[in-house]
Amino acid sequence: MNWTKSMRTTVTEKLTWDNLLPSEQPIYVSSLVYSFGVFTLSSLVFTIMSGVIMAAYGPTWYQYSAAGAFFRSVHFWSVQAFFFFMTMHLVGQFFMGSWREGRAMTWVLGALSFGVSVITAFTGYLSRGDFFSQWNQVQSKDAFNGAGLDGFLNILNNGQVYGLHIAVLPLILIVLVGWHMVAVRAKGVVPPYQAAHVQKKEGEKR
Fold first, then answer.
1. Distance separating alpha carbons of residues 199 and 188, to the nearest angstrom
2. Angle 132-133-139 (CA atoms, 0-180°, nearest 5)?
3. Which end of the chain has fewer beta carbons closer than 10 Å to its terminal beta carbon, N or C?
4. Helix (H/G/I), strand (E/B), else coil: 157
5. Which residues contact 40 (CB under 8 A, 6 or more apart)?
6. What is the CB-side half-sphere exposure of residue 6 using CA atoms within 13 A?
7. Calculated CA dihedral for residues 24, 25, 30, 34, nearest 10 degrees
8. Which residues contact 12 (CB under 8 A, 6 or more apart)?
């Protein structure tokens, strides 16, 4: 079997319409802890949409016009909401052991998304152009040099940092989040420990 046929067979078996767009969910999914992932995704959509609009019109627009200031505020608060809900999602899923029953890749993709989000937010903070971002830009340059990363990224190069923030890092984040969502849909949400124990007992009786 060649790799294209193997991939096509795997996708057909794992990503059925019932998995991608389920019409019913277990009762425990109505718990708040299962909603943090949706809140995180919603905040990410607002962050990306406001960021695209700001990037399209440029820094002069969002620094000096009322409409630009509005979208800059939307972008800022969307990022705050994104990190709040993502942290709640991460902590909640950690204590639920979301890597159980073959979901290790789902967990790894979520953790990688968190890491890339932090770096993306950092480059966004440095792109603000005010005194605080410039001061942190100079300070972080020493940290990057100390870590041996100065050969890959010149943190004082605003064009390089801005390009990473509006193009490279968001694309990586979108791919990781999309992959994470497909993995969630393929494996299903992880049940609480108690529900998993009951399901296991019922399976043994059959």
1. 14
2. 90
3. C
4. coil
5. 82, 85, 86, 89
6. 3
7. -130
8. none
Tell me the residue ranges of DSSP E strands in the chain.
none
* pLDDT (0 to 100) of residue 38: 93
Dist CA 49 CA 170 (whole Å): 11
Two tokens at 73?
């505020």
Please state, in angstroms and rounded to a whole number, the distance separating the CA atoms of residues 54 and 48: 10
In angstroms, how far is the first alpha carbon of the chain from the final one?
Answer: 35
**pTM, 2 dp:** 0.85
Residue 144 vs residue 197, higher pLDDT: 144
Q: Which residue has the tokens 């968190």?
A: 114
Instruction: Give the total residue count for the chain.
Output: 206
Query: For 86, what's the count of Cα atoms within 13 Å in the CB-facing half-sphere?
Result: 21
* pLDDT tops 90 at residue 170: yes
CA gap 37, 177 in Å, rounded: 11
Please state the rounded mean pLDDT for residues 36-44: 95
Residue 193 sits at φ, ψ, to 5 deg, of -55, -40
CA distance 16 to 39: 25
